[in-house]
Every structure is written in C-alpha cells, then in structure tokens.
Amino acid sequence: MCAVKVGAAFGLGLGTIFISQGDALLGDLYLTWRGTALLCIIAGVCLVAASSLYRLLFCPLELLRAPHSVGYIADGGRSKAQAANEVRRRRKIGDLPPVYPNGWYRVLDSHLLERGDVKGVSVLGEQVAVFRGQNGTSYVVDAYCPHLGANLAVGGRVVESCIECPFHGWQFQGNDGKCVKIPYAEKVPDFAKIRCWPSCEVNGQILIWYHCDGEDPQWTVPEREEITKGEWVFRGRTEHFVNAHIQEIPENAADIAHLDHLHTPCIASGVDLRYINSKFWEFLRHGWRVKWEPESEPNQHCSQMLVNHFFTVFGVRCPLLDIQVVARQVGPGLVFLLFHHALLGRGVIMHCVTPVEPLLQCVSHTIFYQCNIPPLVPKVILRGECVQFERDVMIWNNKRYVSKPLIVKEDSAIQKHRRWFSQFYSENSPRLEYQQDGLDF
Questions:
Q1: Is the pLDDT of residue 103 over 50?
Q2: Rounded distance, CA 4 to CA 59, Å?
Q3: What is the pLDDT of residue 37?
C-alpha cells in the first residue's frame, strides 16, 4: 500500500512539474511532454482512487480515537485537548463505587504482538509489559524491574520465554516472574522475581485477571469457536477513551429509556448531541426493543441484553433492516455483541472496557464476521456502532456519578444492574478518596 502511495505522489508531482515548468525545461518538446505529464497526473489520481477503494472494500476498519477527540465541546477558541482537561479538572465526580472491579480485562489484541515483541500498556493504574516468547505464548509482567526500576517495555528483549531488562540484563521468566539470570552475579537469589499477572489469550485478545486480594481467577473467558476455527475473521476495531467511572459504561445496558432518546436519531446526523435531532434527517429513525436480565448460577457473573433493532423511513418500518443482537456481558469488562441478520449473516463485536486509571477507561470494539460476507458489511456495522457509542461518550465525559439516583419505576432495571454489578467489588477494592488530576491530554 505504501508503494501505491509513493507511486501516486511521484506521478502527480512529475506531472505538475512538467506542466508548470515544461516550456522552460524542454523547449520544442513541450507539447509532447505536456501530454505525458497529463497522463502522469491521471495515473496518479487513479492510483489514489484505487488505493482508497481497496481500503474501503477489503481492509479492516481501524479507528483509534485520541483521549480528547470525542465527547468535548471546544468553544471560545480552545482546542479539544484544552476543553477535555478543563472538564476533567472542574467536574464533580460524585460518591463513587470502588474504581477497579475484580475481573478479566483486555490489554492488547493478539495480532499486535509478534514473537519476540514487547509492548508497554497502562492498565488499572499500573504499567505492565506484555511480551510474546519465542514459543508463541504471551506473558504479562510488571513493567518495572525490581532491581533498579528500569522499564522492561522500553528496550527490553525477549530471550526464549523470558524478558531481559535493558539496564543490567537480568532475565525474568514469563510464566512465574522468577529471575533466572543475572549476568554478573555468581548466584540468582531465590527471592529475585517480578510480579507476573494471570493472563489468557482467547478470541484474538490478550487479557489479564485482576483481584484486589490477589485471588485466582473465578471464571474463564468464553471462547468463540467460530473465531478459533476461522469461520469468523477480523474485520476491524475502534478504540476510545472515556472519562468516567467504569460502572457507568455497562450500566447503559439496563438504562433502556435512554435508547429512545439518545439513539433513535439516524446515525447520519452525527455524534454531537447539539445537532443529532436535525430536521434534515428526521425521516430516518432507529427503533429499539430491549430487555436486560442477569444470568443465574453458575454464570451469575454474566448478564444478557436482548436487542431487536429496526429502522424506519418516513415512519414506515423496513423489515429487511431488522437486526437481532444478544449482548452478553462477562464480568465487569467484557461484552460479546452477537449479531444475526437473515441476509447479512452473523458475527460478534467484542466490547472491552479496561481501566487505565480511576476515571479513565480504554474502550475497544473488535468485530469478527463470517468470512464469506463482503468485508464492507461488518465495517458498516462497526462504523454505525461507533457513531452510537460516541454519543454515549459525550454524556459520560461530562456527567457525574449519582449514587442515589432519582428514578421512576420504569428505571427499575438500573438498580437491578447496580446490585448485580456490586458482586465484582470486595471489601478491599480500591476507592478514589479524593479527586486527583491525571495526566493532561
């Protein structure tokens, strides 16, 4: 793809030079070279168009938003980053639940970590190093070497199934964190080790287990056999940062009333809440029939949101656009949105919420879809999901958490969801005792 861009740029540049400077450079040959220059320009334009069309039709969608780019209003000459930082400093946070629930959290997509790679990730207020050994297994350890604090993810090297510190060459095993080599020492102390996070790699993602008391994983992440067998393939991902408590995000599943108000306007009307009710797009509307329920034992850590989505044009329902979605939440940070359409096939969007710090969540949406369905179909679905999600982000980024909300009986599912979600907190779960400014965007 880079070669196509270079060729297009070269053709356009060469053509422009010949047209603008050809008379001076070539004299009597100007007319001949002028035709050649026009051909260069046309060829360059065609290459650019072909490259764009290829990306649209065949390449996975990659949409990675910066922390300040969505959900803030930049007025009065301020940039979005300045607006975001001001909101973070001035917003009242409310009486918050514990900030890090116990559960599984995504740290990285599998395809981003090749053999021998090391990546640094911020998660749960910690810095971790994620690396893949030469045996193909992924490991997650604390990023800072216990010797003198060097960051293993910055210059660290993978040696077999160990990670080597870039400062003094200490090597730590990925499976248990034990130090197995100190180049200049006669003996490695038995107590020399680094924290090793419980992790798993499933559905094309690397996840870690967090429990405030250090308890072992209490459930496993369900594997989608369609992904493992290659029946469903990767078609794209989006990534957003949400300036809110983690519980606010999954609570949306039980807040059924907000769908008809916030998500009924057509996605073509955009994500800025000031303009989504545009009269121009009023003839196109989304419709929702939703039910949320927790699951019973032994899957009490799961819940389901059943969604029937329909689309109307001038008030007339279009049955061919009806989509059934089962959104199954597994623990506090993972949701599987299973799509089924009679003509457009089946697939899943994995919605993952990972705390970066107490009031900053990294939210990713990764779509896998039937391999025999044109890639454009799941990309359109993911893009539509992205638009609807960014409307929620504008709410979350600017609201406060209300521990005792004023609700009516039609909001009863919200309280039911809060009781269900409380199982992921323990007595020692960390709390935010005071508002602490994080890093500016």
A1: yes
A2: 15
A3: 61
Whether the CB-CB separation of 174 and 160 falls below 8 Å is answered with no
Are the beta carbons of 7 and 46 closer than 8 angstroms?
no
CA 137 to CA 256: how far, in whole Å?
41
The whole-angstrom separation of Cα 174 and Cα 139 is: 5
In sequence order, what are the beta bridge partners of 289? 308
**Which residues fall within 8 angstroms of residue 209, CB to CB, at 6 or more apart?**
103, 104, 197, 198, 199, 200, 216, 217
3-state secondary structure of 256: coil
Query: Cβ neighbours of residue 77 under 8 Å, at least 6 residues apart?
Result: none
DSSP three-state, residue 21: helix
Q: Per-residue DSSP letters for 305-358?
A: EEEEEEEEETTEE-GGG-EEEEEEEETTTEEEEEEEETTTEEEEEEEEEEEEET
- C-alpha angle 50/55/56, rounded to 5°? 95
Q: What six digits make up the tokens of 49?
A: 């168009």
Asked whether residue 31 carries a pLDDT value surpassing 90, the answer given is: no
For residues 4, 8, 9, 10, the Cα torsion angle rounded to the nearest 10 degrees is 100
Beta bridge partners of 284: 313
What does the DSSP assignment read for 38-68? HHHHHHHHHHHHHHHHHHHHHSPEEEE--TT
* Unique residue bearing structure tokens 């890093």: 439
Average pLDDT, whole number, for the chain? 89
- Token reading at 434: 């005071």
For residues 123 and 370, the answer to whether their CB atoms sit within 8 Å is no
In 3D space, the residue among 182, 391, 123 whose CA is nearest the CA of residue 274 turns out to be 391
The pair of structure tokens assigned to 350 is 């994995």
Residue 108 CA from chain centroid, whole number: 9
The pLDDT assigned to 24 comes to 47
Q: What pLDDT shows up at residue 45?
A: 78
Q: What is the pLDDT of residues 289-343, one digit of tens each?
A: 999 999 999 999 999 999 999 999 999 998 888 899 999 999 999 999 999 888 8
The letter for the amino acid at 191 is F
348 neighbors 367 (Cβ within 8 angstroms)? yes
Return the percentage of the chain with pLDDT > 70, whole number: 90
Q: What is the pLDDT of residue 22?
A: 47
Cα dihedral 152, 189, 208, 132 in deg (nearest 10): 50
